[in-house]
Fold each of these.
Amino acid sequence: MSGEALRSVNLRKVYTSRGAPRVEALAGVSMEVRPGERVALLGRNGAGKTTFLKIASTLLRPTSGSIEVFGVDVDATPERARPYIAVVPQEGKPFFHLSPREQVYTYLRARGLSRETAKARTEEAIERMGLREVADRLSITLSGGQRQRTMVATVIATEAPLLFLDEPTIGMDPFARRDVWASLRALTQKGSTILLTTHYLDEADALSHRLYIVERGQVLVSGTAEDLKRSVGGTLKVSMPNGALQIDAFRSFGSCVADGSHLSVIVAPERLAELMDLAIRRHLTATVGPVTLEEAFLRVVGRSIDEDT
Ligand SMILES: Nc1ncnc2c1ncn2[C@@H]1O[C@H](COP(=O)(O)OP(=O)(O)OP(=O)(O)O)[C@@H](O)[C@H]1O
Ligand SMILES: [Mg+2]
């Protein structure tokens, strides 16, 4: 193995089908993921995340550009890339006629693991994903969240060098989501690399070392969650329930959003005292909290949509 875990340069994908308009799903995406990193791919519905993951995992061919995993050209030699990767596809389902235990074990054997290793890894993944009680039931009888846990268990058990997970925690309860986070952290500690998509921005914040926001097939922003929060003017949010009419007085502090009579201002910690002073002088009640990644995402992507229209 050599180089970055994943590197794409100017990756484009245009979907064409007879009688339908062409769709440019990726319009030149360049990104890098280093070995051992957990990277989140964020973006609105239709932004191009699944298209990117399908190309990266050899399930779809790009229109142009290049993409490599561990220095192997994914499009030219997919059979050389596949041993490095494992995928939880968006809306994937376990085999209905296999139990979770059978599915995980069978998949590991198909990837060439020995009986002993496959058995040990299967038990560990079943345990980690809280599937012990349902491990021997046919997957058709499982609940939606239990099926999704089975999909994740199957892939984490591979301990592949590079894991692609497309909305891995969709439909999972908050406990199961945390089980996934813990498993993914443990895998990267062992040396695996993870690229995942999610619409849960608390998850992206808790889990990713870095993130990319994709918008209309292009990388809009990349960096850490903290970078993104700072890019909207700070890492603190001041809420003033009756501040909307006085919005102009606060604009110099950072991004201001009025919602009905409510005003929220994103502010850097070093200007907080000054802002609070002003709020008191203007007889406004103000509470301070952290900027969530979701707020930063809404502002950054929202700004880009406004600029385009
Ligand atoms: N097979 C296809 N043929 C034509 N267009 C497609 C095809 N698959 C996806 N698209 C289009 O490509 C664009 C990107 O889709 P993609 O599935 O990559 O988005 P996404 O970011 O994963 O969205 P979501 O968050 O909803 O999963 C969308 O406009 C989608 O409608
Ligand atoms: Mg998708």
Note: The chain has eleven helices and 14 strands.
Amino acid sequence: MPVIILVADGVRADTLRATLDSGALPAMARLLEDGALHEITSVFPSVTGPAYTPFLLGKHPGSVGMPGLRWYDRSRRDCSGPGHSRSYVGIDMRLVDQDLDPAAKTMFELVPNSLAAMSVVTRGLHPSRFFTRGPVFAARTAWTHFRGDVEGWLDIDRDVARRLAAKMRELRPDFVFAAFTGVDKVSHARRHDSTDVVAALRIVDDAIAEMRRDLEAAGSWEATHMWVVSDHGHTPIEAHEDLAGVLELLGHRPIAHPWILRRDPRTAVMVSGNAMAHLYVDLETRSRRWWPSLAAEWSGLVGSLLARDSTDLVLLPFSESRCEIRSRTAGAAMLEWSGDSYTYRPATGDPLGIGEHVGVSGDESHALTLGGEYPDALVQIARIAAAPRAGDIILSATREWDLRAGFEPIPHISSHGALHRDHMLVPLLASRPLPFPPLRTVDLMPIALDALSIPHPPGLEGRTGAARGP
Ligand SMILES: [Zn+2]
């Protein structure tokens, strides 16, 4: 059964539902007649790029070496250039495939007859089977990006839709992954409740109508799974915290994009989304140190950050199976995990607002956090804290704040990246009922592989009825 995944990048679950209800998306409404609309959780950081790894590698981004849109390489082995860091905004995007864990198989490596558009991950695809990175297309997206041209992004979505439909007629692919970035770009510049978000969704809707017509004409629609999904939500921003500037004022000599070259930096500030950040301290040490060995020197910095309105949660990884969670307003707790067992113990407070839980499974922890401010936080925090390339101090911003003051070509009056529900919950519109309803975007790859009758590679972190990940 062919599987088509269409990412309406940045659309919130409630926004998609309301737009469907308004009648503005007739092709999606037709999908819903025979299918289902789910609300599932994305990944932390809830940001494009990292949040595509669940769809294409069946794993959380930190687990495959992409802990954020920007990260610092302590080892200085993987990022050997000046600054020893990555920012996938811009030219480093070409390095995504090589940064990802080579042991984790991509959908494109597992499904030879695949096709992709605007995918950050392309490993395993023949160049004739994706359009994102050809020199002409890359130059066009770069020009659109640096001009901050929202209308230009919508034109790119229309172009993607047209080329995608033509390629699908030509190749009859078994697996398609296509991202439409219009909703995200419009939301950043004009807010997520802008009517232009509906215009961006209508481009996706028109693309669905055309693909469906073609597949019906070819007699293959009945066998096709088509999923419309997102990778993160959006919330309005009232204030920007210049996090790198804060560290500078505190005397910690940070590097942060775009200024990653300086003599004797002491810290690295790597923001994603822009509502989360990895902070790296003690940059001379090439291997990862855990918080207990850093606390003596860096507790003051954490205290200073927790005194700022922009900080919601601070995550302090203690080991590969333990992480302290501190909140600006609700005290601290400890999270421990082992396999599929999670234990959350409030200490000086209850930052996640869920009370004590001992030895709950990933599924149980999803259920008990879903209605609160931090859906799926136990699993999400465990995965990012254990990620080898994660920061020593991980920040999730307060609602209405983000963590970067400038340098964005498109104005950022709306943001994402954080652990809170309006960034983490995403819609999944499926054209037919799924045999095992997913909880998370990371569950979609095993479900796709089942539909394609392809065995699961080892190490998937998603789960289906047939096989459960950790
Ligand atoms: Zn965005």
Note: Residues 10, 48, 184, 188, 416 surround zinc ion (CB under 6 Å).
